[in-house]
Amino acid sequence: MANVQCYQTVQFDCNISNTNVGYWNCSTTDFYRKGNPYKQLRSPGRSHIIFDFYYPPLEKGDILASSKFRINHCGTTANGIVDISVNGTLLLFGHSAPRNDFAFEDIDIPIHLLQEGMNELMIRLNKGSWGVYWYSDAVLSLNTCKFKSYAQT
């Protein structure tokens, strides 16, 4: 019999400048939200953001239970759509972010897409997107479970 104890092992906050986040064909602005800058993806198929994150080796008896990407973003009134991939595997295609204003959205990342060591999550403005996409900040959580036998308690 095992006692399951869950705890959060890694939290990735992109609200501040971070060397693990790369921006291509993006602009930075705070025109609509003074003092709270955001990135704007405007070139369909070319504008993208890459988040690099480390998934540490697990201790004996631990498993990766879940992974979640919480993102604050907006698809604008023109409904900018994005593709989201993890380690080169497409997770969401033509995904619509909340429209008209920024909002948080939780995206579950299937654990089979992750590997021990470095991982990459990419958000790319879809080639067919008519609108732009705005990104503000995000948090990536990797949650592990520790199995502890009752004999050890």
Keywords:
153 residues; mainly beta; Jelly Rolls
Mean model confidence by pLDDT: 82
Number of helices: 0
Number of domains: 1
Strand content: over 45%
Q: Ranges with pLDDT <50 over ≥5 residues? A: 8-13
Annotated CATH homologous superfamily: Galactose-binding domain-like
The first-to-last residue Cα distance is 12 Å
Helicity range: under 10%
Task: Output the CATH class name.
Answer: Mainly Beta
Q: What would you call the shape?
A: elongated
CATH topology: Jelly Rolls
The number of distinct β-strands equals: 11
How many strands, what sense, and barrel or not for the largest sheet?
Answer: 6 strands, antiparallel
* Radius of gyration (Å): 18 Å
Helix and strand content put the structural class at mainly beta
- Which architecture does the CATH hierarchy give at level 2? Sandwich
Write down the secondary-structure element order.
EEEEEEEEEEE
Record the SSE blueprint.
Blueprint: E1 2-13, E2 21-24, E3 26-29, E4 38-41, E5 48-55, E6 62-74, E7 81-86, E8 89-96, E9 103-108, E10 117-125, E11 133-149
Antiparallel strand pairs: 1-11, 2-5, 3-4, 4-11, 5-10, 6-9, 6-11, 7-8, 7-10
Could you give a short description of this structure?
By secondary structure, the chain is mostly beta strands. The protein has strands spanning 2-13, 21-24, 26-29, 38-41, 48-55, 62-74, 81-86, 89-96, 103-108, 117-125, 133-149. The protein is 0% helix and 59% strand.
Explain the overall architecture.
The strands form 2 sheets. Strands 1, 3, 4, 6, 9 and 11 form a 6-stranded antiparallel beta sheet that branches. Strands 2-5-10-7-8 form a 5-stranded antiparallel beta sheet, with no helix packed on it. The protein has one domain (2-152): Jelly Rolls. 0% of the residues lie in helices and 59% in strands. The termini are close together. The chain is mostly beta strands. The chain is elongated and about 50 Å long. The protein has no helices and 11 strands.
